[in-house]
Amino acid sequence: MSSLAAYFSQHHGEDLSLVQDGDSFEKYGRHIRAERNFDVGDVIMKETVTFVWNLPAGGLAKYSSFINASDCLTAHDKSLICQLGTGGPDSFNYWRKELSTAPADEMQKLLSAHCAATDVTVHEERARLHANRFATEDFLINLWCAMQTNCYRRQDGAFCLFLGPSLLQHSCFPSARWDIQGNEIVIKCIRPIEVGDAVSQDYYGVASIKSAVARKLSMPFACNCDRCRQELNGIHTSTSTSVYPSLMESDDEDDLEYTVT
Q: Can you tell me the distance from the alpha carbon of 104 to that of 96, in angstroms, rounded to the nearest whole number?
């Protein structure tokens, strides 16, 4: 199985490194570290999309998306995607429940339609699904969890997966922002980054929220970035802008719009 570390080194290894152990890993978890200085406006990384999809509604449609994802992605891409964060057991159990809500007869209709489109019998398709480890139910749920957890929302509403940028850590005082141009994402520096710094982005568009408590309520996980840790420990008040002025006092809404869904 190909590793994310090898992928990242091949595509972004000149100026960045993927950290998965050591002291900085203990502090930040898996993250991307700068191997040179970046100034505001510098391009940190560019990458072409791995997969694009639209979010369906309902258990049956989501099951169809599982099948489509399995069929459209190569085994190499699927192995890399499943090495990304998946949101943990809660996410896995949520999607398993969504899958189980599709009635058995509807699932049979979907399987029959899928077989008709691929010119195989239902029996042959069931045999293929059981034989192919990339098409088992648990694998599909893991794959979908990773895709949903790490996707970016494009301006046309489509969801896009980019492997390298998905490894960027979240911070409520991010050092980078993203822009999707067609099928390419561009990650740009928005405050000076020095060699050895962890490069970060704002997953949920919360950087402009002054209160650490309010930001916490806007995210599905407990943020442990430097800004939240300092505010929650009372190093400065939750309404103070003195420590993080460049993001919190901006009059340009575009400076605050780097939301990952």
A: 15
For the segment 80-102, what is each residue's pLDDT rounded down to a tens digit?
888 888 766 776 777 667 656 55
Q: Which pTM was predicted?
A: 0.73
| pLDDT one-digit tens code per residue, 121-180 | 555 555 554 445 445 566 767 777 888 888 899 998 888 999 999 999 999 999 999 999
Strands (E) in the chain, as ranges, are: 16-19, 31-34, 43-48, 51-53, 152-153, 159-161, 169-170, 176-181, 184-189, 198-201
| Strand order through the sheet with 184-189 | 43-48, 184-189, 176-181
**Token duo for residue 36:** 């040179």
**Do the beta carbons of residue 220 and residue 187 sit within 8 Å?**
no
The b/e string for 17-38 (b: 16+ C-beta within 10 A; e otherwise) is bbbeeeeeeeebebbbbbeeeb
Task: Return d(Cα 167, Cα 32) in angstroms, integer.
Answer: 7
